[in-house]
Amino acid sequence: MIPHECGECPIRHRAVCARCESDELELLDQIKYYRSYESGQTLIWSGDPMDFVGSVVSGIATLTQTMEDGRTQMVGLLLPSDFVGRPGRDSAAYDVVAVTDIVMCCFRKKPFEEMMARTPHIAQRLLEMTLDELDAAREWMLVLGRKTAREKIASLMAIIARRDATLNKNGTRGPLVFDLPLTREAMADYLGLTLETVSRQVSALKKDGVIELEGKRRVTVPDFNRLLEEAGDDSDGGMLI
Amino acid sequence: MIPHECGECPIRHRAVCARCESDELELLDQIKYYRSYESGQTLIWSGDPMDFVGSVVSGIATLTQTMEDGRTQMVGLLLPSDFVGRPGRDSAAYDVVAVTDIVMCCFRKKPFEEMMARTPHIAQRLLEMTLDELDAAREWMLVLGRKTAREKIASLMAIIARRDATLNKNGTRGPLVFDLPLTREAMADYLGLTLETVSRQVSALKKDGVIELEGKRRVTVPDFNRLLEEAGDDSDGGMLI
DNA sequence: TTCCTGCATTGATTTAAATCAATCGCCCCC
DNA sequence: GGGGGCGATTGATTTAAATCAATGCAGGAA
Q: Which of B88, B153, B150 is nearest to B123 (CA)?
């Protein structure tokens, strides 16, 4: 809801439209429309026809794959400015589920594809975003394939902490505080674990002082480099951003 | 080696240049150069400065990540026509290792980037290829996160069989025959397993008649749908291509 | 031929994580 | 205030895969 001018859009400079000039933005403005969904709602079912693409304006959603017997693996975590859908593809390849209430800025696929063909700025930006996603997916593959349960949890905490710090422009000094956007079960789907293992390893990291918990969701990281060590990452990769 | 005209290039219609018109191709022709590497050679070290990008012309290479303690995960399998390197990035993010002798068609990064800015056909094709890679990476995440060792092996066999069938235009009828391009250890790095587990599960699939082996590398799949079932995939996804 | 050497297989044992199961704590609603 | 329900925690046990350890096998060199 809350439709607005592109000029004052919160994701103006990070979404697929980031590179657009004001005249290009005006064209997009004409074909865009907003949709909002409630927490828990499935925006898109895998295999269904997809007649639109769009950007997450606010809220969080997940991209998941499900096997016939019900095993599920999260394959993407969609944050504000992330793009949903693939130009040139007719049916959705993954389930998209809202984790919080969410607002999307949508375009019907056909007009968007035409616009993309005429506007290199959009295609350029989409390429850049897709390359970033591919890097993230490959990082994630290392986590899934080779890390222990404890390292997986620490890695996830580090990813969320890092993202939170960039979004909210917190300095890199001092303890980091953030809220987990995911339930234990969603964390398990993210990491290829069971929710019991997630719970145990979160408790273990807490017991060992790597993280502090306030309630189930609010996390404090007193020493980010310590967290990175636990994640099995290069300890000198402590740069936020 | 064996430099040639783009017009008679084996990957002309599938690589990053696929969409180029003959005049664009001529420009690429002027800035391209070939490099060849021997099996086992590391083409690129993670973290090293990357001053070129390029396409695999022939042969196979792997993209791998390594943790400090030596654990490694393959994050990409590079086949003829696949693109290596990321425009806009200065240093390599992954190790690239030749699995067979390999020939690359290279471009210095700077001229390629300039060319890309002027030639939408290249950027378009690169976007398409990157989106395909992202899909493959997400498929792979499901394999790594949720499949059993047996399912992982069956999934890998299915991927290679499918690829081989498209490359060599074998019909979908009858038993499929192909060569494994990877050692047991490389398969383990691909699937997040140990080489012993790979060996055991290959033997088990053979014992159960899902695959037949001639030597260590040559595989026959008598019933592709059976293999897909073992991989935990939709059994109706049996379409090759 | 015989001896390497590098991959691969197979076996015995350990172990990390899954599974099965009970309980807790919090919020909401009646 | 007393359920009911959902997410989370914790415990006991099982199990799939890792680890540790021999052995096999094919190809190349001496």
A: B88
- Residues from chain B that touch A130, judged by Cβ atoms under 8 A, are 127, 130-131, 134
What is the mean pLDDT of the segment spanning A144-149?
A: 98
CATH for B148-237 is 1.10.10.10
CATH topology for B6-141? Jelly Rolls (2.60.120)
The C-alpha atoms of residue B119 and residue B123 are separated, in whole angstroms, by 7
Burial of A232 (0-12, 13-18, 19+ CB in 10 A): buried
Measured distance CA(A99)–CA(A186) in Å, rounded? 9
Q: What is the pLDDT of residues A181-220, one digit of tens each?
A: 999 999 999 999 999 999 999 999 999 999 999 989 999 9
Domain locations along chain B: 6-141, 148-237
The verdict on a CB contact (< 8 Å) between B138 and A191 is no
Cβ <8 Å between B73 and A232 = no
Cβ B214 to strand D below 7 Å: no
CATH class of A148-230: mainly alpha
For residue B197, count other CB atoms closer than 10 A to its CB: 18
